[in-house]
Amino acid sequence: MISRGRFWGCIAGILVSLFCEARELRYCVSVPDPGLDPFREIVDGQQVAAYFLMTRPYLSQNSEPGILSAFGVSPDGSVFTGRVNPALRFNDGSPVSPLEAAYGIVRGLSVRPLGRKIAIDGSRFKDGIRVIDAQTFEIHLRSKIRNQVGVLREALSNGSSHNRMWPVKLTNGRYDPAAPVIVARFPYSFDRGDVVFRAGAEKIRIVGRDRCKDAEFGLVPDLFETSRGRYHRVRSRAARQISVQTHSIRVDQNARAALIGWIRSAFVNLPDELATESVGSFFLEGEGGHDPASRWENRYDEAVLGSREWVLAVENPAFVQLIARKAAKDGFRIRFVPFAGSNAAYDARVIASAIHGTRHVILQDLLEWSESRTLFAKTPATVRALERISALSASTIPPPPAVFHEFERISRRESSFAPVARRFVQAYSKVGAPLVLNLNEFGEHHFHEPR
Question: Model pTM?
Answer without folding.
Answer: 0.77
